Amino acid sequence: MGKRKTLVRAITTQTDLEAFQNSKTYADFLAFIRACNQSVRGIAISQDYPNKNGPVVSALVAYLEEAWGWVDDIPALQQPMRFGNKAFRTWHARLEATAPRAIENLLVASQVGR
């Protein structure tokens, strides 16, 4: 294996950017991005997603969706605050209170199929 080269910022001016945009490296990189884009064109993001989740991922997603729902249950306070919205404290307290159950569900889910 060859000697490692220390990375340095090489694009610092408009002229550097234009030189990069006219380089073979840029053309190759852009071709790679376009090929990746083309390979997934017409495939929905969620097309096979639910069927490929294991029990642990499903349990975690369910908990995150539950926590996201609390945003509607605990609306932000509409008043000036110096150190962030105090409703976050309520949301976080609920997160702390439900975390043991969520972890237990994840542990149970991790044992499914063993």
Automatic annotation (TrEMBL):
Positions in coiled-coil regions: none
Enzyme Commission number: 5.2.1.8
Predominant place of localization: cytoplasm
Localization per Swiss-Prot or TrEMBL: Cytoplasm
Pfam families: PTPA
GO cellular component: cytoplasm; nucleus; protein phosphatase type 2A complex
Source organism, top-level taxon: Eukaryota
InterPro entries linked: Phstyr_phstse_ac, PTPA_sf
Keywords linked to the UniProt accession: Cytoplasm, Isomerase, Rotamase
GO biological process, one term: mitotic spindle organization
One example GO MF annotation: peptidyl-prolyl cis-trans isomerase activity
Catalytic activity: [protein]-peptidylproline (omega=180) = [protein]-peptidylproline (omega=0)
PANTHER family linked: SERINE/THREONINE-PROTEIN PHOSPHATASE 2A REGULATORY SUBUNIT B, SERINE_THREONINE-PROTEIN PHOSPHATASE 2A ACTIVATOR
Annotated function: PPIases accelerate the folding of proteins. It catalyzes the cis-trans isomerization of proline imidic peptide bonds in oligopeptides.
Record family assignment: Belongs to the PTPA-type PPIase family.
UniProt-recorded name of the protein: Serine/threonine-protein phosphatase 2A activator
